[in-house]
Specification:
two-stranded antiparallel ribbon, binds magnesium ion, alpha/beta, TIM Barrel
Length: 342
Amino acid sequence: MIQSDKRMLALLLPLLLLCSCKSTDSTSVQPSQTKRTVVDQFGLIHTKGNKIVDKNDNPVALHGMSLFWSQWGGNFYNESCVRWLRDDWNCTIVRAACGVESGGYLTNPQAELAKVTTVIDACIKVGIYVVVDWHDHNAHNHLEQAKGFFQTIAQKYGDKPNVMYEVFNEPMQVSWSTVVKPYSEAVIKVIRQYDPDNLIIVGSPTWSQDVDVAARDPIVDPNVAYSLHFYTGTHRQSLRNKAMAALNSGVALFVSEYGISEASGDGVIDYNETALWLSFIDQYTLSSCNWSIMDKNETSAALKPGATPTGNWRDEELSVSGTYIRSRIRAWNGEVFKNLNH
Ligand code: MG
């Protein structure tokens, strides 16, 4: 302690003693701690049969936004953006998509990890959920890197109910039983050494559409759901049928990524099919993260090029998709936030 600090302490000490006389208990509740957050309300999210439920075993649907690949959309990986997504969009969940190939984690592990942890810290601070997504189409070829990444995340955040792990974004045309499943089991084994209970979301072949295949040969773990990814301009009733088959097999699904564009992320918006998919989400109480928070000139990007990376977006900075989805998420989660006092 330097001299000026000592003098300051001498001046403040009587005041500090006065303030502390009512309660000397270090656990006394400060005003900021009395605010209830989304995560305070729902606690540890887990599966119960084919449902996703909250800490009281009540079915819960979380709705929010996915960020874009971290190596290209990393400027949106900041606390101010996350806070805006909670306060203005009513997001109860944000997905951090850690880019792996194409200049991502494989090339710059520390830089990409730092972006992801910035988003996790922000979500914990504002009390919403965060999906930590290994955003890779070939994760089975990067098993050791994935294990290292998820070990770091689970060690640091495994005790936080906010965190969910998505271990393989979208496998392509590879086998579930001999490729995706063993990869996922190896990563899950590492996560479970540090975090015995948080939700783990597992991908399936054909860009996380073959949920029915995974459901016939499921992973043995107490808290695993399967990601269901769709783009409403491309995927239709046949994919909803596969999803229903998986649910009927008894596994839980989690829509950790969907867009209202075509599967390329671009193209036209089919509003009729979008309405069918959003009804499907509601019918089965599925959680969802829309793709994506990015200021790119393509249909699925929620923001127009040049939108500020720190939130506070004006209406004219939102794309057609962004405007539509923001309105939907605000409607979905309005009741949740009405009951919270932040
Ligand atoms: Mg845990």
